[in-house]
């Protein structure tokens, strides 16, 4: 399964950038993105920005990811307590 996550570009140095989400900063390559700027949101897969996304789409994707993370935490909790 492939998963891309939205990150906000914070810093750019050539094709190298730093992106962030929820206070976590990650290195990002910008080889496939035309005219990137700090503040842009990009979908990142395997360390590469693969497309620009608008801020609303990025926010929705982040909300959905947070929902999945909460559900996974609940399942882990159930498994740890023998409920599953």
Describe the structure in your own words.
This protein is α+β, with helices and mostly antiparallel strands. The protein has one domain (5-80): SH3 type barrels (Roll), CATH 2.30.30.140. Helices cover 31% and strands 38% of the residues. The radius of gyration is 15 Å and the shape is elongated. The two termini are 25 Å apart.
Q: Characteristics of this structure?
A:
SH3 type barrels; 38% strand; 1 helix; alpha+beta
List the helices and strands and how they pair.
Blueprint: E1 5-13, E2 16-21, E3 24-29, E4 41-45, E5 48-53, H1 55-80
Antiparallel strand pairs: 1-2, 1-4, 2-3, 4-5
Oligomer: single chain
What's the rounded overall pLDDT mean? 92
Q: Could you name the CATH topology?
A: SH3 type barrels
Number of domains as seen in the coordinates? 1
The helix-strand sequence is: EEEEEH
Structure annotation, total helices:
1
Rg: 15 Å
* Global geometry: elongated
Helix content: 25-40%
Number of strands: 5
Q: What is the spatial order of strands in the main beta sheet?
A: 3-2-1-4-5
Please mark out the parts with pLDDT under 50 across 5 or more consecutive residues, or reply none.
Answer: none
User: Could you give the distance between the termini?
Assistant: 25 Å
Largest β-sheet summary: 5 strands, antiparallel
The portion of residues forming beta strands comes to 35-45%
- Provide the CATH architecture: Roll
The CATH C-level class name: Mainly Beta
Decide which structural class fits the backbone. alpha+beta
């Amino acid at each position: 399964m492939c998963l891309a996550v939205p990150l906000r570009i914070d810093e750019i140095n050539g094709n190298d950038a730093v992106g962030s989400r929820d206070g976590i900063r990650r290195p990002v390559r910008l080889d496939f993105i035309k005219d990137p700027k700090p503040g842009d949101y990009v979908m990142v897969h395997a360390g590469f920005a693969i497309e620009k996304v608008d801020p609303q789409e990025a926010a929705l994707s982040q909300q959905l990811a947070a929902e999945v993370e909460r559900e996974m935490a609940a399942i882990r909790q159930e498994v740890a307590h023998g409920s599953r």
